[in-house]
Specification:
Layout (H helix, E strand, L loop, with lengths): L1 H5 L2 H6 L2 H32 L9 E8 L11 E9 L6 E11 L5 E6 L3 E11 L2 E11 L4 E7 L2
Parallel strand pairs: 1-7
Antiparallel strand pairs: 1-4, 2-3, 2-5, 5-6
Length: about 150
């Protein structure tokens, strides 16, 4: 009956004892229960919503080596691009997804893409009058790193 004491005096005068109990249950007991329930719901949603986002970054590492496959080649221009065929299948052109870079002293170049793709690789190294080229295809998968070795001839 401690709740009855907390009811405002004007309500005490007008209402019966059973209504006092209803008043106590509604205003003194349910408010904390509702508050706790909504707090738990908000905390649960804050924990679950960020887990829905995945890392979709695709990393491509292209290694360039000489024709023997032993020596890494530095300063090789590497281009990743997508070839697209027209609707009639007769014409092929380069799509919007292209990136290019130059290999480091270890013969590697790194590319990052937001979404998975299958891309063509063109590697060209010009040194003096000698030009070495190599081609390949790389498949980028969601959230992972893919390595491809290109032999230049």
């Amino acid at each position: 009956m401690g709740c009855v004491k907390t009811a405002p005096p004007r309500i005490k005068k007008k209402l019966k004892k059973s209504v006092y109990l209803k008043y106590c249950f509604t205003y003194n007991v349910m408010k904390p229960v509702i508050l706790i329930f909504f707090t738990i719901c908000i905390l649960t949603s804050c924990l679950l919503i960020p887990s829905c986002t995945k890392d979709t970054t695709c990393v491509a590492i292209v290694n360039c080596k000489d024709s023997s496959g032993v020596n890494a080649l530095a300063d090789v221009n590497v281009k990743l691009y997508a070839l697209i065929k027209s609707a009639d299948g007769k014409t092929t052109y380069t799509g919007d997804i292209t990136q290019s870079g130059t290999t480091n002293t270890a013969g590697q170049v790194r590319f990052e893409f937001k979404l998975p793709a299958i891309l063509d690789i063109l590697a060209v190294r010009s040194k003096g009058t000698q030009t070495l080229t190599g081609t390949g295809i790389i498949k980028l998968e969601e959230g992972s790193t893919t390595e491809k070795t290109i032999l230049l001839k």
